[in-house]
């Protein structure tokens, strides 16, 4: 299943003397979907495509689907994938940008632990160099350069989807620490709390990640609790509780969906407030599947819930929904590959 589209007003890409076009590909690998874009030197989207992330098959199957999504996006932009000036991939888990490997991917295609050379495997299909970055870090960089964070110098990005990821920009510079900075989903919000997919207890992701909330919902149904979540999932022909399923259940005031989302927002408010207390950032941008789908009303509720936890309430951070929406990760991955804003 794939969706593809091209931005109006753009024709086929212009070539360069070395046979490669002055356009780049970007791919956002998510727990439920793969988003691919083709962008020009200004970051304008020339073409895009969406594929479903494989639920099994491991890294080899993921690479095939990444290439398929990139090919569909390139087709809408009027260019062959082999003619792209570069390709970037934003991926969840442990990314080693220097070696181009991806490890510890609990939310993708059944997950794998050992480092897999994803960049070289995809590069063999593309016929060129592929660079990698953490999915949320590249998405936050895109929002900082082109989206909701462009008017600030210090930004926290929180990507609320299958898991909960984060990214930081400090004084205009993306902050990656030793490679894993921004992992707000693995901040402990409750000592000895719920078990997280990472194996630890009490992480934010164990309460707010869509995968964790789905496990909680399934357990509740087994115990006899009523919900329309899974009826909506079947109506939408989905196999998992995607963001649109949660949004519709909330709209229809489903008690279980409401309770789980309320708990998620409370835990997110604790984690975000703690980051603000530590770093005194100017702005928070919330994106990801659930963040973008639920939008500003829910972001405002998170902001309100942060107040009791903030040390300095007279300088509250500005709160925004990601302006680039579902495309922030893919655009950020493309910027990683070449265009400099």
From TrEMBL:
<dbReference type="Pfam" id="PF00480">
    <property type="entry name" value="ROK"/>
</dbReference>
<protein>
    <submittedName>
        <fullName>ROK family protein</fullName>
    </submittedName>
</protein>
<comment type="similarity">
    <text>Belongs to the ROK (NagC/XylR) family.</text>
</comment>
<dbReference type="InterPro" id="IPR000600">
    <property type="entry name" value="ROK"/>
</dbReference>
<dbReference type="InterPro" id="IPR043129">
    <property type="entry name" value="ATPase_NBD"/>
</dbReference>
